[in-house]
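Per reviewer request, we include the raw input and output of the structure prediction for the construct analysed in the revised manuscript.
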Amino acid sequence: MNEIDRWISSGAGVEEGLRLLSIHAPNRWLAELVSRLPDRFGHLLRKALIPFAESVSFSQTVARGDGSFRKEWPFLAEPDCPPELKILAADMITSWHGYVNAHEDLYNCVSPEACYDTARKTVDNFSQNCKIRSEFQYYKEHRRVLGKHPVFATTRRLKELRTLPVTSLVRKQRALKGNIWRISHEMAKGDRPDLQEDRAARLAQRKLELAEVERMIQEYERSERRDNR
């Protein structure tokens, strides 16, 4: 993440934006306009500086629709590409569009609550995008995974589930259903907005594990029926 990425993720303040503009894209007319009427024209700083953000390059290639995303990350087409990276490719694009849309919505907020919620979405999507980009860049340079993104831990847990006997799978199924109910109940209360992102991530993870457990139980039951014919 470079200084423009950090500026965007922290809210794109006008004062810091003017400083970055003078370094990366000097424009006296724009600087004077924003200085005089920051509330009205401050958003123009973002449009002028975003091409210099480190995390934006892939979004530009996606927008062109010419396959440049795959050119930037050629390992995605290789047969030995880790499956986690192929999963993250879609999330990378989704998080970028989520960031762009949420950032645009910041200018339409009419209450402190709306501003907080929109700012949270902006930062969360930007952070997610940067985490994925770090994984891609590391693999591109070293040909091995960095492995810090939660998707790698999820993959390990799914592999562990596939080694369990059916009796353990049934117990795991009950436990996961209980976990899902508790997390959903916590989120429905809405009393800790600062924990919503973490809770949502845990809920998605538990649902994924439950789906895999139930798939394996069903496969075992089908196998038992075939053997008893």
